[in-house]
TrEMBL record:
Role, per record: Involved in beta-(1-->2)glucan export. Transmembrane domains (TMD) form a pore in the inner membrane and the ATP-binding domain (NBD) is responsible for energy generation.
Cross-referenced Gene3D superfamilies: P-loop containing nucleotide triphosphate hydrolases (3.40.50.300)
Organism domain of life: Bacteria
Organism of origin: Rhodopseudomonas palustris (strain HaA2)
GO cellular component: plasma membrane
Gene Ontology MF, one: ATP hydrolysis activity
Name the record gives this protein: ABC transporter related
Keyword match Acetylation: no
Cleavable signal peptide: none
One Gene Ontology term from the biological process aspect of the record: L-isoleucine import across plasma membrane
Length: 260
């Protein structure tokens, strides 16, 4: 199957800090791929390059075969790369449905006429999205009243309003209770597989990663050091040393010190 996203040889440095070094990978439609690694490994830098916020020093990023390096974030978004953030971004005084309607208006390029228009516009489409994330009963509630877990589901619906082909999710379950985390990822994975949306997510909760990812990539000091099924990655001694154990053990210099 043709790759939805094909990343080749991405490099990004900041004044001598090699944030991302020669990273290559692909995401297939409907695939749920986790990108994990210790703090400072380069995960955010990778995400920021994928959605156009940062331009790589070197490398290619193809979405459905078309190069997107150099395109501004808004154009990348229009081409179908959605992103959710650790901190939810919704309008708290608007209702749940209105938030989705605003996203739909924007997607259908009518944001300029938003004032006084969102009330009726795209209502059915918004209701469908609400049903998809199980929030029909909360449609009329102001977002400011929602529990955190519900806000995250709303954020997912807002991201889906843009009909993404690829969804980048930055620690989607941060700040949630363990049960809610599993539920949110189950919901996301179900929708993504159903609609053939590729999902790339970063996550610190290993239960979420191992339970929901089809494959896991491990980044360490800017380099991809492993990719495989959750089982393969969990059993990889290098990965255990880098990420699941003491990160210092992976660096040969530190390993020597640690062993002594
Ligand atoms: N704007 C910047 N200027 C200078 N250095 C940066 C900048 N952004 C990132 N870095 C450095 O690049 C490296 C990778 O950072 P990045 O934020 O991508 O890692 P991360 O894996 O997302 O970390 P975390 O899990 O803590 O968010 C780090 O050494 C970081 O200090």
């Amino acid at each position: 199957m043709t790759a939805l996203l094909e990343v080749k040889g991405l490099v990004k440095s900041y004044a001598g800090v090699h944030a991302v070094r020669d990273v290559s990978f692909a995401v297939r439609p409907g695939e749920i791929l986790a990108l994990i690694g210790p703090n400072g490994a380069g995960k955010s830098t990778c995400f920021n390059m994928l959605n156009g916020q940062i331009r790589p020093d070197v490398g290619s990023i193809k979405l459905a075969g078309e190069e997107i390096v150099g395109l501004p974030p808004r154009t990348v978004w229009r081409r179908g790369v959605g992103r959710t953030f650790q901190i939810t971004a919704t309008f708290s005084s608007m209702t749940v449905r209105e938030n989705i309607q605003v996203a739909l208006l924007s997607f259908h390029r009518r944001l300029w006429s938003m004032v006084g228009y969102a009330g009726a516009s795209h209502r059915d489409e918004a209701n469908e999205l609400l049903a998809l994330v199980g929030m029909q009963e909360q449609a009329e509630r102001p977002c400011g009243e929602l529990a955190y877990g519900d806000l995250k589901r709303l954020e997912l619906a807002v991201a889906l309003a843009n009909q993404p082909r690829l969804l980048l999710m930055d620690e989607p379950t941060a700040g949630m209770a363990p049960k809610e985390r599993v539920e949110l990822m189950r919901l996301t994975a179900g929708i993504a597989r159903d609609k053939d949306i590729g999902v790339l997510f970063t996550e610190h909760d290993m239960d979420v990663v191992f339970e929901h990812a089809d494959e896991v990539m491990v980044l360490n000091r800017g380099q991809l050091v492993a990719r495989g099924t959750p089982q393969q990655v969990r059993n990889d001694p290098h990965v255990q040393a880098i990420y699941l154990g003491d990160g210092l053990l992976y660096d040969p210099k530190h390993r020597k010190e640690a062993v002594q």
